[in-house]
């Protein structure tokens, strides 16, 4: 499966220090499981969590879910050891928190020189310092393992001293910039977590906002958020019907070489054909996965 067609609707953080959480992660319908060594782990448990994560990965059983480990920040006492430990772990990605500048990612990339080529670098967008460098950061995808942004709105709120409301008003410009930078350089991008896991109406509203912004999916903090998140970020039947109609119309001999045609009374251009093919590819991947 190509990365562009890989469903990343739901990405669930699971604390690596919790054996029951690690066991449960193997049976949950999240597209991505992120074994967390950072926020969800107390300082005195960091080393044990690292060992537990590596052991869980070695044990396997995560199926076709994409598997990532979020390490501690490089400027902490644990970050460098975390990075060294995951070099040969059988995971899909390393999620790097507290990225301040593009050189943080190039440093991580250099540290992973001996890792398998399939290992990706994912970057948390959660510091004020990185915001002016989003385009430069995303541009690193051309020459490094960087392939995905993950929004960290909670940390942004803390640094900005901003209020985190359901509307996320103070962060809307940053969300927009992150998505635009990611799309400009072929980087996938996931929305940040919703802290409200008991009220799924609040969660669904925030997920709908993320979909509107163009995110590929959303990071989660509780298994109850998985089902509504997968539903929200899956192509609807109506959208898929339109996509198939666009693909079929452009395939007609009379439309060969045309840049714009009419489909079901609406104008469709080649950019819509590209979007339609992407949507169908993701829908096919979701169907095969489920």
Structure notes:
The structure is a single chain. The chain is of the alpha/beta class and 290 residues long. The protein folds into two domains: 3-232, Alpha-Beta Barrel (TIM Barrel), CATH 3.20.20.60; 237-289, no CATH class. 42% of the residues lie in helices and 17% in strands. It contains eleven helices and ten strands. It has helices spanning 19-25, 46-59, 79-86, 102-111, 134-139, 153-160, 172-184, 200-213, 226-232, 237-250, 270-289, and strands at 10-15, 32-36, 66-70, 93-96, 120-125, 146-151, 188-191, 217-220, 260-263, 266-269. α4 (102-111) links the parallel β4 and β5. α10 (237-250) packs across α11 (270-289). The two termini are 15 Å apart. The mean pLDDT is 94.
Tell me the number of structural domains: 2
CATH architecture of the largest domain: Alpha-Beta Barrel
CATH class of the largest domain: Alpha Beta
Poorly predicted segments: none
How is the biggest beta sheet arranged? 8 strands, parallel, barrel
CATH superfamily of the largest domain: Phosphoenolpyruvate-binding domains
Strand order of the largest sheet: 1-2-3-4-5-6-7-8
- What is the distance, rounded to the nearest whole angstrom, between the alpha carbons of the first and last residues? 15 Å
Shape summary: globular
Fraction of residues in β-strands: 15-25%
| Contiguous helical run count | 11
Question: What would the CATH topology of the largest domain be?
Answer: TIM Barrel
Helix content, binned percent:
40-55%
Instruction: Find the structural class using helix and strand composition.
Output: alpha/beta
- Give the averaged pLDDT, no decimals: 94
Number of distinct beta strands: 10
